[in-house]
Amino acid sequence: MTPLDHGAVAGESFPDAAGVASGSPTGSRSRRDKTTDLETAIDRYVPDGASVAFGGMGGRDPEAAAREIVRQEKSGLTVLDDARTTLFDIMVGAGCVDRYVGSWVGTSLISQGHNVRNAVENDVPHHLEMRDVSNFGSSLMFLAGAMDVPFVPTRSMLETDIPEHNPDIEVVEDPLGSGDDLALVPAATPDVAVIHVQRADRLGNAQIWGNVVNDHLKARAADRVVVTCEEVVPTETIQRHPELTKIPFYAVDAVVEVPFGSHPWHCYGYYYADLPFYREYGQRSRDREDFLDWLDEWVVPHEEYLERIGAERLATLERMEAQLNDLPPVDGDAEEEEGSR
């Protein structure tokens, strides 16, 4: 059993790989300014043939980063993930992905993943290999990767046909003598994890509120980590609430400020999901030619994408989020102002 990396060609390495692999503070993950732009981050850290994990799940998904992957016409990717939604369907339809290992794909309550289904059933635009694990199993993949162990044993999936159809999962008898069978879930060690968060500082300390999903594990399991965020803030702001820092600077290679980087998904505390946009995508992705027209319309640089959405529509999503999720201030500013009155 080998870890699920399925990444770059043997013998190749990413920039500064030695510094990262050794844990050296002088490598690319040292305490330095890691901010860059989205185009540069994707170009550098997501080469053709890489294995990629994406953060979020039905919210805080790195949609802007995925569109940039499509815009740069990346190919031969393996996606190692848990439950993945629209961004995966878009990348599959654009021909970027060859293989998927995870538990679920679709577009949630709005539609099916028409491009994924078309690739699996009809090889359009080309065949997509799928290897299933359970929801819990996908979490264990990244737990093993984060712990730097080759696998994690579990009873999950034993009463299913998943091990029969996924050769990466081995069923063995308990070596400690209980007589029970155990499923061995191999570690997921993606070449790169792309994770969207609410805010980060320039060093890479990334803060998440709401559902963390497996993002803290993905960041530790991956060889490289690109953090996109709604806003880059001073380190002093991060330090006011250290409990929100789910991904520390020493796990991060690049930081990119991408406002509305999860649109059309929601980002907890910032904006609500753009459900009409989703419905339109669900309809247009049913037909191949209509989907290709959709790509031409919406896979553009992020600033242009936001202009096409429109400032009024984005402001409406912000108001909806404020009404539906009344969050307390997280940076301490409001409390300080109240105390000074």
Describe the global form: globular
Tell me the structural class.
alpha/beta
Rounded average pLDDT: 90
Number of domains: 2
| Text of the CATH class of the largest domain | Alpha Beta
Protein name: CoA transferase subunit A
GO molecular function: CoA-transferase activity
InterPro entries: CoA_trans_fam_I, NagB/RpiA_transferase-like
Keywords: Transferase
Topology:
Blueprint: H1 17-21, H2 38-45, E1 51-54, H3 63-71, E2 77-80, E3 83-84, H4 86-93, E4 97-102, E5 104-105, H5 114-122, E6 129-132, H6 135-147, E7 151-154, H7 162-165, E8 170-173, E9 181-186, E10 192-200, E11 206-207, H8 215-221, E12 224-232, H9 235-240, E13 245-247, E14 254-257, H10 275-284, H11 288-298, H12 302-309, H13 311-324, H14 333-340
Parallel strand pairs: 1-2, 1-10, 2-4, 3-5, 4-6, 10-12, 12-14
Antiparallel strand pairs: 7-9, 8-9, 10-11, 11-13
Helix pairs in contact: 3-4, 4-5, 6-8
